[in-house]
Amino acid sequence: MHKISKIGVLTSGGDAPGMNPCIRAVVRTAIYNGLQVVGIRQGYKGMIENDMYDMETRSVSNILSLGGTILKTARCNEFRTDEGMETAYKNIKAHGIDGLVVIGGDGTFTGALRFSQKHPDIAVIGIPGTIDNDLYGSTYTLGFDTATNTVIEAIDKIRDTADSHDRLFFIEVMGRDSGAIALRAGISCGAEAILLPEKSTAIDDLIKSLKEGQLNKKSSSIVIVAEGDKSGGIYDLAKAVQKEVKNYDIKVTILGHLQRGGSPSSFDRVLGSRLGFAAVNALIAGHSQKMVGLSANFIKLTTLEEALTEHEFKLEPDLLKMMEVLSI
Ligand code: ATP
Fold first, then answer.
1. Which fold has domain 144-260?
2. Nearest C-alpha to atom 12 of ligand 1 is from which residue?
3. pLDDT tens digits, residue range 73-111?
4. Mean pLDDT in runs of 10 for the chain (328 residues)?
């Protein structure tokens, strides 16, 4: 176990609200403990292109309420190659960095683990920063709460117009492999149906339940479709349903990138601060190749290997069942 003296911090993959409070906590916890901190811009790209700068306490002033990430983020294919990793290693060694905090999703962790296995002299701690809430080892990931709140706010507004016109809205939300946002938003907004990547829904069943809703005098209906749903795309789905459900005027809305933006919620500010604080303390305690997460409201360390291989993160069965019951 070597003593850490200088930490590099980066954000990588998709941006997520809460990354800034997390960066702030990393920087200030490190400085509080007498360590130096280097901010690495644009994730692994900044390591390869040597785009890094010394951070001080005041470098992270007034960023708690900002969405996105002040360090910028990127997807960097060069880091997947041995040459890219070697260049990155040389650059961070030249800066005297001996500990890395990487904030991102599973791709970011895969890169961090490979890098640290090649270069065990650089200790690495991962922080789950992704709106998808799909990492094993943490009940919540950074950004999920804010993104879900953003979705809810948008759907509430759509519900107003849907109700006024007897309309059926199909609303696409983010989640290529994870239905976490769709499920929470569906329950929070009283959606009539939620289509998830984790669960196949027969179109006939959907049509049947929408028709039943009409018979039960529902004046509007909302169907939430996660990006990764396997029913063939939201437009085709809406067309197929329109043929059968004639009394509703069907509209499609794709919420898109607005879901990533916005000021982090209180939950994500606190979560980001906790995880940033915990990540630096884990490095100081000599840990490496681990992820800091939240489990039963306590900080938990999970090996990156486990976080990556055991990603059988399942949606809560009670929420799935409740959805059917409460939408009658
Ligand atoms: P999100 O969940 O928001 O998509 P992510 O971290 O999963 O975030 P990715 O684009 O999958 O986002 O990964 C981020 C970066 O991690 C990649 O651009 C690449 O630089 C690095 N990375 C991913 N997989 C590997 C790998 N197998 N080897 C090395 N680096 C990798």
1. Rossmann fold (3.40.50)
2. 13
3. 999 999 999 999 999 999 999 999 999 999 999 999 999
4. 90 97 98 98 98 98 98 96 98 98 96 97 97 92 98 95 86 93 95 89 86 79 90 89 86 95 97 98 98 96 89 76 82
pLDDT at 311: 57
What is the enclosing helix (H) or strand (E) of 224? strand 221-226
| CA-based R_g, the chain, Å | 22
Q: For a pocket test of ligand 1, which of 47, 73, 75, 114 has the largest count of ligand atoms closer than 8 A to its C-beta? A: 75
Give the CA angle between residues 6, 9, 12 to the nearest 5°: 155
Question: Which residues are known to be catalytic?
Answer: 132
- Amino acid sitting at position 83: E
CA distances to 69, 208, 215, 323 from 204, in Å: 43, 6, 17, 18
Domain 6-143+264-308, what architecture? 3-Layer(aba) Sandwich (3.40)
Contact status, residue 10 vs residue 71, Cβ threshold 8 Å: yes
pTM above 0.90, yes or no: yes
Domain spans of the chain?
A: 6-143+264-308, 144-260
Q: CA-to-CA distance for 49 and 59, rounded, in angstroms?
A: 21
